[in-house]
Amino acid sequence: MQGEVLANTEDFGGPDPVTGPARAALAGKDAPYARYDLGRAYDEMFAPDGRPRPPYIALDSRLTSLALEELVRRQQACEQSFLHQGITFTVYNDNQATERIIPTDLLPRIVTAGEWERIERGLTQRITALNLFLRDIYGDGRVLKDGIVPREMIYGSKHYRREMRGLPVPHGSYVNICGSDLVRDEAGDFVVLEDNLRVPSGVSYMLANRDVARRAFPGVFRSMNVRPIEHYPLELLATLRALAPFEQDVSIAILTPGVFNSAYFEHAFLARQMGVELVEGRDLLVNDNVVYTRTTSGLKRIDVIYRRIDDDFVDPLIFREDSSLGVSGLFNAYRAGNVVIANALGTGVADDKAIYAYVPRLIRYYLSEEPILDNVETFLCREEKSLGHVLANLDKLVVKAVGESGGYGMLVGPHASQAERDAFAEKLKADPDNYIAQPTIQLSTAPTFVGDGVEARHVDLRPFILTGNETKIVPGALTRVALKRGSLVVNSSQGGGSKDTWVLSR
Amino acid sequence: MLSRVADSLYWMSRYVERAEHTARVMAVKLESLVEQQPEDARASWARVVEALQDAHWDDLPQDAASITKRLVFDRENESSLLASLGFARDNARQVREALSNEVWGNLNRLYLHLSGVHADAIWVHSPAILFRDVLDEMQALEGVTYSTLSHGEGWYFLELGKYIERVQLLGRVLDVHFRQGGVTPKYFDWLVLLKFCTAFEPYTKLYTASIRPQKIAEFLLFDPEFPHSIRFSIDKMTEALARVAPGAPPARRAAVERLAGRLKASVDFGQIDELMSGGIAVFLSDVTRQCEKIHETLFASYITYGAETVL
């Protein structure tokens, strides 16, 4: 009883939490970690001997002193709050629309100051090279002439936008908002899994999750010197402002597909936090290559559009003519320099699976530096040596078709039968250019509250990188969690959730 | 302000007003159930249904539970309380960035609360309790709408929606009580009418507790100070009209304001004794028609205007 009282005062500004428990609870043995599996993957919280790693000691001491019912209560309070705030997505089943909250885990994932410093430098380096690459392929094409990247990979990509050739973008920044997916490999090193250069989402969950974790563990939060992230909307606003050719009275709008889009909450959230207009395609019109919104008082000019719709839908006159989400004439206004669109069009050419494999080379080519963050090892089957290796190791590798996503045209070697592998080998030999292969990676695991205890679940890390006239990364990220035991799939469409990420200042 | 945002705020507010009116009528009606004889109760239910529903019901159910189910919980019925709240919330979600957390949160919680209630469960105790709770929540919503939003253009679009809807709702509930022919309302029905319009106490302060239809009509039509009178609502509507679309071209503004001015004049100078011999229905339908015209002109001037007209 006395312990309980102390536990509560700690949370609300009482004595500082005990930082070292008398006897560390062991993963896999003691409550609340009795069912915590330490497998092959790197675990964020526990060292291989089952003891908590130093950054997690304060959280561990809190978790072992809190009654399970109290955790359940805090989890429910969090879900209730998400529901009331409308942080939901809609699932359609038998014509019945059901609103579900995005599952959120109470327990924070901790990134140390040293780890973050490397991530920050590595991502800045990477986005710099990628922006130079985009400027190059939509400009002189030096990288193609020098034979660093095969021409047909660019010109054959469905995300390459011929319309962008020779069109300058402000500060040479094509990708103004980037959300890169990092994972921690078995050795504990962060590697880049994917660059999302088109319309990355999730930043509102990064911010919403901070509220959740701070409310659930106020004492631990206060004691840990967690770096703030609340200024993200401000940084985003500054980034967008920097794209306009003038400084005073820049009129900015977020272009959303509308209320039925699964990320609509985020679009509205960012518009509110930045104090800019949230517009749909039907609110905009283009006259004489100038973009206007229709307001109650008349037409109002727009200078910068942060678009949250894909390239294909931006302008039915230039791209998909069946699109009702975009604005006729927008692209010509863009070409004429009367409006800035962020991200620029055509950035998708630099984030497909094959170009991904070239990013380390691009960093060396443009920056004459060694990559700070590695890629997941990727074999390009178009290169003869790699093809031989892939064919000899099909039982250990995941092979993916370059132009496909969502798991199509893919072979998961370790889970396939010999017959399936043989059949796939034939496809590979017939069209090697179309395939890449990667070893299966065990994403790291992090402690996750599952209702009656704390268990290990696989996670990734998505920081958000802003680039206007300079690159800024708010010290935080969306940590996505594969909520199903043993699952490696963190996507929210497939049972993934998320949790707060605490970047420590020292 | 974006025209689309103004559109959604206006409709959100209309649906909120409609939902509140429905909740109040239901609370009052269900509280008064025990006091009426079956025959009077039936006539009274018929008036309630007609006052609240856009579509005519060919089959008025015999029991209060079935009527309540349709008026409140039936999502297929576009005039039901739950449907109104759902439309209000859909509109609010479309303009989430134009509302405060408090406004959205209150409306969302209210909707989630009511949509989680089972229609049969309310009869276990006094069925009116649910509607009194809903009214409390609606008043909280009205409070945060007043206190957490800037009273700028968006807020005045909310005001416009609220008062245009209120005029229509008052018009209908008055019409079913004052029209000639049919079952004549009795003393108890007049009392209930005042309560439908949250007017019982304000009325007695002015006219004492002597319940006289002519005085009730005068109060609900022409009282300049009571928020649920037609005159008060039209005053507020005119005020709000003067505050929206400040930068719109004068010709466009004049079109709306002229109509509002004419409506205001007809109510400001209305005389109850001129209306009592059957003229109330005519007067009400004229007011309603003028409101519809104002709505159309408002949309044409500020919201759906063609871009070619301003370029």
Descriptive terms for the model:
heterodimer; A: 506 residues; alpha+beta; Rossmann fold; Dna Ligase, domain 1; five-stranded mixed β-sheet; four-stranded parallel β-sheet; 15 helices; 22% strand; globular; disordered N terminus; B: 311 residues; mainly alpha; 2 domains
CA-based shape of chain A: globular
Structure annotation, total helices of chain A = 15
SSE topology string of chain B? HHHHHHHHHHHHHH
DSSP strand content of chain A: 15-25%
What's the CATH architecture name of the domain at 246-336 in chain A?
A: 3-Layer(aba) Sandwich
Shape summary of chain B: globular
The stretches of 5 or more residues of chain B where confidence is low (pLDDT under 50) are: none
Give the termini distance of chain A in whole angstroms.
Answer: 35 Å
- Most extensive chain contact? A-B, 28 and 29 residues
Main β-sheet description of chain B: none
Largest sheet of chain A: 5 strands, mixed
Q: What structural category characterises the helix and strand content of chain B?
A: mainly alpha
Low-confidence stretches of chain A: 1-9, 13-22
Q: Main sheet of chain A: which strands, in order across?
A: 13-5-4-20-21
Helix content of chain B: over 70%
